[in-house]
Write a structure and sequence with these properties.
It is a single-pass type II membrane protein. Keywords: Glycoprotein, Membrane, Methyltransferase, Signal-anchor, Transferase, Transmembrane, Transmembrane helix. This is Methyltransferase. Pfam families: Methyltransf_29. Helix content is 28%, strand content 15%. The chain folds into three domains: 100 residues, no CATH class; 215 residues, Rossmann fold (3-Layer(aba) Sandwich); 201 residues, Rossmann fold. The protein has a seven-stranded mixed sheet. With 639 residues, it is α/β, with parallel strands linked by helices. It is built from 19 helices and 17 strands. Helix 1 packs across helix 2. Bound molecules: 2-acetamido-2-deoxy-beta-D-glucopyranose (6 copies). The site of one 2-acetamido-2-deoxy-beta-D-glucopyranose has 3 residues, from loops. One 2-acetamido-2-deoxy-beta-D-glucopyranose binds next to loops.
């Protein structure tokens, strides 16, 4: 290894750190390298690759830490000093066995790090991120035979088998019509464990139970945001679109592994997550309806802590639709569970809105009245008054009820207008984050205009159906997503944790289009996944899930927090579909810095770099860099 590696170490270290720091860090690097070798030798799980970089790809990098870099004289020095002169020529490609890697949800990591996780509490499905030294700093290859995904709306019903080569769900759930293998495709007939006859009929049944007009679950725009827990391949969410409802489908990577991967490949908003010990990453009072059909969650455990978490994210007057044997079976065990659940939800002040055909729908109170009328000492208790109901990143769940603010309680609700007026009507929660209605409106206007410009910039490269799954990595108030209202897309809005109070504003928006424009609806979902500190952590999603990533001043923020822009670029590459786009708007030196990595990232299928017009949100001299990722193949075929 010796000589060759030395040379490589030097170049990568220089690129990453600049020459000044180089010599002092060389020692640390060699030390780290030897620890790694030790660790490979002793504790790597059997069957895992000893090296991240694929064997057939030696020319691209001998060992996973090392990139082949070449030095180019040229670009003038910038804030980044001498390292700005270097162009990184290539990054190693990971082993094919990592083609579905989700770094923070990689269960082999728990095993390797010997983390103690309580399986009863589902801690093994919660996030455990690799420490810096354990990251695979390599590009994730697509599986053999990967094809550009089938576009929406056809993708609702079919995906390429080669893109997610796992057919065990089709076999296991064949009687429930989850999915069916059909030649080189996998089809989704719309069934689920609880709705073999199809999610569409089941949704109508729920609307009828609630006596909503025209059997339409949107209830004239009052129901807009839905959380589906234990969602399978997300057919429930897929069919809610016809009712103009956006659902976020949530499931862990459990025995039904790949269910969320299928949902995302289909173009349905979904994310990996679990009701375990940590709060869901959503602010309080964000969903009008929560749904669980045969979701295999024990709601009675730990004094109802999981049901109380659903209660936290439900709006005043929100519904919980529960379809499960306990709601109808007459055997003793199910009766006992049903009675215990009925008792628990009564103490939580929920009422039965309807119970019929194996489904029960509970409704949450509109005011604090019932909480106040409970006998002293009734469990579950109210959360303490200093509890921030909206804090949601890495917050341990508590078995308590989050009461409403005085304002919500006396207004008997959130004072939200129905959808679609919600999109442009400022939410009263703006007050809570100290933003005036004027600022909010200005933000919306700027983003409308910016998005138009971005689409013009991309025009030569895109078709009408190029985008379906979009992530706005710095969502602010959701203005970017709101501007995409005419497009058949959904947007995962991400907010850094130190700004997470803004997230509720995004939830309180809806859309601003008239009903006829809403067919095959674009929609908007908010989730925040990272803080500025955690911007260096990886997202809870599969590789190749997004068609477009939007990063507005993200890189500058990340760098201010002392995280690595390079790590973030590699993470973005992981999430980005082949031929997907990235829009980066940032300060000029940062854009120049990023441009040095485009070839190595294989983001040079198409590049556009323009100076934008100055607007109300501009921060000094900025540039808009839009790039397109190449479609390339992993080992053994050469890229
Ligand atoms: C896991 O959590 C449950 C519930 O809190 C507890 O009863 C059990 O003892 C824990 N198990 C371990 C191995 O810590
Ligand atoms: C339900 O109502 C919404 C308007 O609130 C409408 O856009 C949608 O097409 C309706 N869906 C069905 C299936 O009737
Ligand atoms: C629901 O139950 C009623 C009788 O209680 C029955 O008439 C109806 O067909 C059932 N509907 C469904 C969708 O199963
Ligand atoms: C999450 O919180 C726990 C304490 O509850 C802490 O030990 C851990 O470091 C935190 N993790 C992150 C990523 O902040
Ligand atoms: C949608 O937004 C535009 C401006 O952005 C506004 O003029 C229009 O009234 C809004 N429509 C609705 C239904 O709120
Ligand atoms: C969050 O952190 C970023 C980066 O340090 C900083 O620019 C921003 O002002 C912070 N936001 C808040 C609300 O503190």
């Amino acid at each position: 290894m010796g000589g060759r590696m030395r040379a490589r170490e030097k170049t990568i270290m220089e690129v990453a750190l600049g020459r000044k720091l180089f010599s002092s860090l060389l020692v640390a690097f060699i030390l780290a390298l030897s620890i790694l070798c030790l660790y490979y030798g002793t504790s790597f799980a059997p069957g895992l690759p000893r090296r991240g970089a694929s064997d057939g790809d030696d020319a691209d990098g001998g060992s996973w830490m090392l990139a082949d870099v070449e030095l180019f004289p040229g670009a003038p020095s910038s804030l980044y000093g001498e390292s700005a002169n270097l162009v990184v020529k290539s990054l190693p490609v990971c082993d094919m066995r990592l083609s579905e890697l989700i770094p923070c949800l990689d269960r082999s990591l728990i095993y390797q790090l010997k983390l103690r996780v309580n399986l009863t509490l589902m801690e093994h499905y919660e996030r455990h991120c690799p420490p810096a030294g354990r990251r695979f700093n390599c590009l994730i290859p697509p599986p053999v035979g990967y094809k550009v995904p089938i576009r929406w709306p056809a993708s609702r019903d079919q995906v390429w088998k080669a893109n997610i080569p796992h057919t065990h769900l089709a076999e296991e759930k064949s009687d429930q019509r989850w999915m069916v293998v059909n030649g080189d495709k996998i089809n989704f007939p719309g069934g689920g464990t609880h709705f073999h006859a199809g999610a569409d009929k089941y949704i109508i049944h729920i609307a009828q139970m609630l006596k909503f007009r025209n059997d339409n679950l949107s209830d004239g725009g009052n129901i807009r945001t839905v959380l589906d827990v234990g969602c399978g391949v997300a057919s429930f969410a897929a069919y809610l679109l016809n009712h103009n409802i956006i659902a976020l489908s949530l499931a862990p990577n459990d025995v039904h592994e790949n269910q969320i991967q299928f949902a995302l490949e289909r173009g349905i908003p979904s994310t990996l997550g679990v009701l375990g010990t940590k709060r869901l990453p959503y602010p309080s009072r964000s969903f009008e309806l929560a749904h669980c059909s045969r979701c295999r969650i024990d709601w009675l455990q730990r004094h109802g802590i999981l049901l109380l978490e659903l209660d936290r994210v439900l709006r005043p007057g929100g519904y919980f639709v529960y379809s499960s044997p306990e709601a109808y079976a007459t055997d003793e065990k199910n009766r006992r569970i049903w009675n215990a659940m009925s008792d628990l939800v009564r103490r939580m002040c929920w009422k039965v809105a309807s119970k019929r055909n194996q489904t029960v729908i509970w409704v949450k109170p509109l005011t604090n009245g019932c909480y106040m009328r409970r006998n002293p000492g009734t469990l579950p208790p109210l959360c303490s008054s200093d509890d921030d109901h909206d804090a949601a990143w890495n917050v341990t769940m508590k078995a308590c009820i989050s009461p409403y603010s005085k304002r919500v309680s006396s207004a008997k609700g959130m004072e939200l207008v129905s959808w679609p007026q919600r999109l442009v009507t400022p939410s009263h929660r703006l007050e809570e984050v100290g933003i005036s209605d004027e600022k909010y409106n200005e933000d919306s206007e700027v983003w409308n205009w910016r998005v138009l410009e971005y689409w013009k910039q991309m025009k030569p490269e895109i078709q009408q159906d190029s985008f379906r799954n979009i992530m706005d990595m710095t969502a602010n108030f959701g203005g970017f997503a709101a501007s995409l209202v005419n497009k058949h897309v959904w947007v995962m809005n991400v907010i850094p944790v130190n700004e997470s109070s803004k997230l509720k504003i995004i939830y309180d928006r809806g859309w601003n289009k008239t009903a006829e424009q809403v067919q095959n609806m674009p929609f908007m979902i908010s989730v925040f996944s990272t803080s500025a500190v955690h911007m260096c952590e990886s997202f809870s999603t599969y590789p190749r899930t997004y068609d477009l990533l939007h990063a507005w001043l993200l890189m500058s923020k990340v760098e201010k927090q002392g995280c690595s822009v390079e790590d973030l670029l590699i993470e973005m590459d992981r999430m980005l579909r082949p031929l997907g786009f990235v829009i980066i708007r940032d300060k000029v030196p940062m854009i120049n810095h990023i441009k040095r990595f485009l070839t190595a990232l294989r983001w040079d299928h198409w590049i556009s770099d323009v100076e934008p017009k100055v607007d109300a949100l501009s921060m000094g001299e900025e540039r808009v860099l839009i790039i397109r990722k190449k479609l390339w193949k992993g080992s053994p075929e050469k890229p």
